[in-house]
Amino acid sequence: MPHHTFSKLAEKFGPIIYLRLGQVPTVVVSSPKLARLILKIHDHVFSNRPRLVSAQYLSFNCSDVTFSSYGPYWRQVRKICVTELLSSKRVSSFQLVRDQEVNRLLNTLSTRSGSEVNVSELFFSLANDVLCRVAFGRRFTECVGSSDEGKKRHLAAVLTEAQELFAGMGVGDFFPEWEWIHSVSGYKRKLTKNLEELSRVCDEIIEDHLNSNSNSGGNKEDFVDVLLRVQKQDNLEVPITDDNLKALVLDMFVAGTDTTAATLEWTMTELAKHPELMKQAQQEVRTVAGQTGGKVVDESHLQHLHLIKSAIKETLRLHPPVPLLVPRESMDECILDGYKIPAKTRVLVNAYAIGRDPNSWDNPLQYNPQRFEDSSVDVKGRDFRFLPFGGGRRGCPGYTFGLATVEIALARLLFHFDWELRRGYSTDDVDVSEIFGLSTRKRTPLALVPTMNKELWG
Ligand code: HEM
Question: Which one of 230, 303, 341, 382 has the fewest CB atoms closer than 10 angstroms to its CB?
Fold first, then answer.
């Protein structure tokens, strides 16, 4: 795992390391002080992204928010993303989608009460379904395509392949001068094929939206509706082409699914390893919901669930889903804490190492949500000891959206079910090793035994 290797190197050589990864000059930083220099003081120098091979294809020539180069186009699409797609008003407007999808998850669990369940798989389906409905207006596993059954393709198949291709760093990303590597490795062929499929699936979804023509603004718009509306505005600094629109809507899906699911997966993993905390968090949600007399937890309860919110933060400290943030590239030469960083250097911020730094955190390896209670440290990237969503101009614009799903899902999982490890397993047996992907997930899926609390099942 690169973030582990870089953490070990930082322990040995200090918090700023220069490496040549293949042909790419790379700097990795692992301290709050250096992160502040990159994400705040010299943010304008480090706000570019490298043109990764996968993004050149699957982000329609890097025209999404995540991988577009710093400049007028990125500024415009970032603004659309922040004010139109991921604003707090928009996030609230998707409450019904979260509600329905979390309830579907609970119903599935209720049919398996008392038996062992692969909850990781269910959490990934939840995140995929929420993001798919919000972005494209349909569920992940729904078909797209002509009415001819044989020609219908599962959205799931195309999007899953895109997620996998994004996650698998191509060897060519480290040898940008040797383009032939992509052809020899077969990577280019896979990317081209997936891009064709993605494009076709998106065309069909856009056409459906145009034909149904039911949305003229307001609360029920999905991301495709919003972008089709914005595309028509005549005050755009840079026009948004159909391919740009596809890149943007796919970006929301890809950036939001694995990260959200991984946060839920790691939080349940840590709570399963700490049954006392699990009980306290459960007590909290049952008491808070009890005060409003009902058998349901809704989003109005979340503001009172301090322990649950702290548990999620503590999870993000120890298991940031994007441990090295998204790579940056310096646009000019810059002096960083006395070191000269040339232009076009790839820069990685090791949020994983920073979250576990003994100079910043007491008992850094201990899972202790209480450390966030009565603490001013938030997730917004203003405290450089805690950077699960990065920071500065390129910080994550989707954190409210992601946390809204994780919080309501976790609250309801704890409210309606008691959770135990599978028979014969102790807390020490819960594996916390990781696999590298689009986000850092648990190597072995989390298997738990839910028992439905019948009194709290409405
Ligand atoms: C718990 C869930 C999430 C985590 C942990 C997370 C984490 C991150 C991180 C670390 C970055 C890189 C920031 C940097 O370079 O400083 C990022 C960027 C981004 N995230 Fe998230 N994210 C989450 C959810 C979401 C969601 C739900 C969406 C959208 C629906 C989203 C959209 C984006 C976009 C568009 C960027 C690129 C921003 C830019 O380059 O201007 N994220 N995210």
Answer: 303
Q: Give per-residue pLDDT as tens, 83-134.
A: 999 999 999 999 999 999 999 999 999 999 999 999 999 999 999 999 999 9
Measure the CA angle with vertex 456, ends 415 and 117; round to 5°.
Answer: 55
- Alpha-helix residue ranges (DSSP H) falling in 274-372: 275-291, 306-318, 351-355
65 CA from centroid of ligand 1 (Å): 10
Helix (H/G/I), strand (E/B), else coil: 26: strand
Residue whose CA is at the smallest distance from ligand 1 atom 41? 394
SS3 421: strand
C-alpha of residue 425 to centroid of ligand 1, in Å = 35
Tokens of 317: 């400290």
Residue 169: pLDDT band with limits 50, 70, 90: low
Report d(CA 142, CA 216) in Å as an integer.
25
Joined tokens for residue 215: 């949305």
Residue with tokens 């047996």: 429
| Residue labelled with tokens 């209670």 | 373
Dist. CA 99–CA 19, nearest whole Å: 46
DSSP 300: G
The sign of the dihedral angle between the CA atoms of 125, 264, 377, 353 is negative
ipTM > 0.90 for the complex: yes
Q: In this structure, which residue's CA is closest to atom 17 in ligand 1?
A: 396
pLDDT tens profile 404-451: 999 999 999 999 999 999 999 999 999 999 987 778 999 999 999 999
Cβ neighbours, 10 Å, residue 286: 16
- 18-70 residue pLDDT tens: 998 878 899 999 999 999 999 999 999 999 999 888 888 888 999 999 999 99
Rounded distance between C-alpha atoms, residue 356 and residue 354, angstroms: 5
Of 26, 426, 434, 432, nearest in space to 268 by CA:
432
Separation between Cα atoms, residue 307 and residue 277, nearest integer Å: 9
- Give the integer Cα–Cα distance in Å for 386 and 269: 20
187 within ligand 1 shell (Cβ under 6 A): no
Residue nearest to atom 43 of ligand 1 (CA): 396
Take atom 21 of ligand 1 and give the residue whose Cα is closest. Answer: 396
| Backbone conformation region of residue 167, classed left if phi is above 0, alpha if psi is from -120 to 50, else beta | alpha
CB neighbours of 455 closer than 8 A, spacing ≥ 6?
none
